[in-house]
Specification:
The chain has about 425 residues and is α+β, with helices and mostly antiparallel strands. It contains 13 helices and 19 strands. It folds into 2 domains: about 290 residues, Vaccinia Virus protein VP39 (Rossmann fold), CATH 3.40.50; about 100 residues, no CATH class. Helix 1 crosses helix 13, helix 5 runs antiparallel to helix 9 and helix 11 runs parallel beside helix 12.
Length: about 425
């Protein structure tokens, strides 16, 4: 199966898929470009590990239609940036939509329209399902409508990696997109013809596909009833601009869209898999460089302040005074629990930074520990390939990479299930 990896970062999708089956999943092309930075560190790390493939380091919008047409990819994967997806009518657009400048999701749609892959596997932050705040669910509905217009179905699930055995409480929404003319899609057509919302006293129930038969259901089991009875269905307009203007539906953390009609439910994991505690991914103290320890009392007090409760008087740009309140958090990480979500600011003096107290000494997590929280191999981000040769990457940049990355074992499990689905083809 030939794979195109977009918004590739340091290769999280590729690492996960190759762990699932390196022979089946052959990543032939990748694109990684950071427009705000002169140095293309993430691309250079990717190119160091995978120099044999066609790795493209330009703005995705500058990849021509002709170059996409040369890519006979069976699957497109990527974790695309979360932006504003509102659309407007335009006579010049073949799709009849025009995203605001810099909206990168439309580049995925463009690549899909040209390449026509069998599958896509995509990832984004879970707040996408509630975006924008003034018209919740609109952005996601636009995406569903866009794939429907191209002849694809979409299954989605918000997955917290720690609820499926991993060491980080990282919630992300994953899409499995498949072409409607595939045998897998046709097998499920009869199920979706009969799917219906059934009312009972306290719950709504959908077809077994969502609970048992879908890709996510088989790899990431859920309790087979909606959480607090939250279940909805919605018919999407064929006019994507109309969806943008008028959408008023709901989108829960699990769902499936077929032929413009989607079913969505709020689900809970079965909790059959115990999370991995932070202590299980830490390096031994003899392996930790002294530079990661913090003995400076001023910095220790700064972390205590940042993590503590506070009420601060502030003034807005228009002169309005208000009180900013923030609840307290534990003074340092509980090593018996999975970690909090890692951000790109990891390692800085920041409330979100992981702050460890081991043997009565404070320290930060190391780049290797950050890689382990995302299930990358140790030292995956240590070296980058440049025009001047192989160069070591700074600790700060390695943390930034991991804050942007995904938990690769989630992709591995998706790859294992997709392997079964692909045998139908």
């Amino acid at each position: 199966m030939k794979v195109l990896e977009l918004f590739a970062g340091v290769g999280g999708f590729r690492v996960g898929l190759e762990h699932a089956d390196k022979t089946l999943y052959q990543t032939m092309w990748s694109n990684q470009f950071e427009p705000a930075r002169k140095s293309q560190d993430a691309f250079e790390v990717y190119d160091y590990h995978f120099p044999e493939t066609d790795n493209i380091n330009i703005d995705i919008a500058k990849i021509s239609d002709e170059r996409f047409a040369e890519m006979d990819a069976d699957m497109i994967v990527g974790g695309f940036p979360c932006q504003d997806y509102s659309v407007a009518r335009t006579l010049s657009s073949e799709m009849g939509i025009e995203g605001k400048k810099g909206v990168l999701f439309w580049e995925i749609i463009r690549a899909t329209r040209i390449i026509k892959p069998k599958y896509l596997v995509l990832e984004n932050v879970d707040r996408l399902l509630k975006s924008p705040s003034k018209q919740r669910g609109r952005d996601f509905a636009i995406m569903l409508s866009s794939f429907n217009k191209l002849g694809y179905s979409v299954e989605w699930r918000v997955i917290n990696a720690a609820e499926y055995g991993r060491a980080q409480r990282r919630r992300r929404v994953y899409f499995f997109v498949y072409r409607n003319d595939l045998p897998f899609a046709k097998i499920n057509d009869k199920k979706f013809e009969n799917i219906d919302l059934i009312d009972s006293d306290e719950q709504h129930r959908y077809d077994d596909y969502i609970y048992h038969d879908g890709l996510f259901a088989r790899q990431f089991p859920i309790i087979d009833k909606p959480y607090k009875g939250r279940a909805d269905q919605y018919e999407l307009s064929d006019d994507i601009a109309e969806v943008s203007d008028t959408f008023v539906g709901k989108v829960w953390n699990t769902g499936v869209m077929r032929h413009g009609r989607y079913y969505t439910i709020d689900t809970e994991p079965t909790h059959d898999e115990k999370p991995t505690p932070i202590k299980d991914i830490l390096q031994s103290e003899s392996e930790v460089n002294e530079k990661f320890y913090v003995d400076d009392q001023e910095k220790i007090e700064k972390f205590a302040y940042l993590r503590g409760p506070k009420k601060i008087q502030r003034k807005s740009a228009d002169g309005h005074e208000y009180t900013f309140s923030e609840g307290g958090m534990s003074p340092y990480e509980n090593l018996d629990l999975p970690s909090r979500t890692m951000l790109t600011s990891e390692g800085s003096i920041n409330r979100s930074t992981h702050w460890l107290n081991i043997n009565n000494r404070y320290r930060l997590i190391t780049p290797i520990e950050a890689e382990r929280l995302q299930d990358f191999p140790d030292n995956w981000t240590k070296i980058k390939k440049t025009a001047k040769g192989d160069v070591e990457v700074s600790d700060r940049m390695r943390m930034f990479f991991m804050g942007n990355a995904l938990v690769t074992t989630v992709i591995e499990r998706i790859g294992l299930e997709l392997k079964k689905i692909n045998t139908i083809e």
